[in-house]
Amino acid sequence: MGMETLATSEKNALRAELRARRLTLALSPEGALHSRRMQERLLESALWQKCRSVVAYISIKGEAGTERILDDAWRSGREVFLPRCRRKGEDGWPGGMDLILCGGMDELVPSPFGIPEPPLTASSCLLSDAELAEPDTLIIVPALAFDRAGFRIGYGGGYYDRMLARAACPCVGLAFHDLLFDTLPREPWDKAVQAVCTEEFLLCL
Fold first, then answer.
1. Which residues is 38 bridged to in the sheet?
2. How far is CA 58 from CA 52, 68, 120, 151, in A?
């Protein structure tokens, strides 16, 4: 078995365990407090102070919360871009994410995945590749787990991997501290984030 296939197999084996562990952490008595602390830690950071546009996500199924981050972004006049996933195609197209400017939670609609997303219309404003290279754009990345080198294990669809491959701006992962590992399986195309924020600390890499 080649190393690439081995890493893929190891990730797949970990996903169910990490998903259950993350949900347990989120639903624990301390879960809401830890989620609030990691968001506050990011909001106090230089990464946040420098950004003018933010790519965030709507947290679901135990993901680290983003409600305080989104509220601060909208109140402070930052541009908020939220992902809208496009499914894999029968022609072999792997799928992707549109990053759509969103002015508030009331603009979101349920996706086929059950995730609140901004709709894509003729008047939608999408984040460009040029803006993904701007130093004042900040991408906030969810995951099942991160390691101390900034690599992550996601859901396996590759949506964030393909978006991060286009990004040259700062990227920060949000995670419960118990889901920050010394090392995780990685593949040649995986891209690390530049920081990981937990309830305990902001790890800059």
1. none
2. 19, 11, 16, 21
> What's the whole-model pTM score?
0.91
- Distance between CA 18 and CA 155 in Å, rounded? 10
The size of the chain, in residues, is: 205
The partner residues of 140 in beta bridges, in order of sequence, read 172
- Domains in the chain, CATH or no CATH each: 3-204 (3.40.50.10420)
What is the average pLDDT across 172-188?
A: 95
**Is the Cβ–Cβ distance between 60 and 82 less than 8 Å?**
no
Number of neighbouring beta carbons within 10 Å of residue 90:
6
CA distance 99 to 90: 23
Backbone angles phi, psi at 101, to 5 degrees: -60, 130
pLDDT in tens, 67-119: 999 999 999 999 999 999 877 654 455 667 899 999 999 999 998 778 899 99
Residue 71: burial class (beta carbons within 10 Å; 0-12, 13-18, 19+): middle
- Whole-angstrom distance, CA of residue 31 vs CA of residue 198: 12
> Is the separation of the CB atoms in 5 and 187 below 8 Å?
no
Is 182 within 8 Å of 146 (Cβ atoms)?
Answer: no
